[in-house]
Amino acid sequence: MRAIWSGSISFGLVNIPVKLFRATATKTVRFHQQRVLDLIDRKSKGEEIVLAEEERAEVVDLMAMLECSVADANGRRPKTKRSA
After folding, report:
1. How far is the C-alpha of 8 from the C-alpha of 21, rounded, in Å?
2. pLDDT per residue over 14-54, tens digit each?
3. Would you call 16 helix, strand, or coil by DSSP?
4. Cα atoms in the 13 Å half-sphere on the side-chain side of 71
5. How confident is the model at residue 72 (pLDDT cuts 50, 70, 90)?
6. Which one, of 26, 46, 51, 25, lies nearest residue 36 by Cα?
7. Measured between alpha carbons, how far is 84 from 79 in angstroms, rounded to an integer?
8. In the beta sheet, which residues pair with residue 11?
9. Where are the domains of the chain?
10. Contacts from 33-38 at CB under 8 Å and sequence distance 24+?
């Protein structure tokens, strides 16, 4: 394919060659893009947007996990006394 225009962009001492080509392929909007565009359109018209609630992840008690980990670690290693 032949470039319509060619030239360069310069930033100080750096030159970047650029070529401009004619667009030949048609591009369709993907489903998730279309859904977002529809939501934006509905919101701009003043409609209230209510999305389906997703499944929530299980909440882990971090303190209980830390205590369990410390107890497990202490069970495997002998306790050492530090001298003052």
Report:
1. 14
2. 999 999 888 777 777 666 777 888 888 888 898 887 777 76
3. strand
4. 6
5. confident
6. 51
7. 16
8. 14
9. 1-47
10. none
In this structure, what token pair is assigned to residue 24? 């030949």
What's the token pair of residue 27?
Answer: 């591009």
Among 4, 9, 37, smallest CA distance to 21 is for: 4
Q: Which two tokens stand for residue 16?
A: 């970047």
pLDDT above 80 (res 81): no
Residue 82 confidence class, pLDDT cut points 50, 70, 90: low
Residue 27, φ and ψ in degrees, nearest 5: -120, 135
Q: Which of 7, 6, 38 is nearest to 21 (CA)?
A: 6
- Residue 42: CB partners within 8 Å, gap ≥ 6? 49
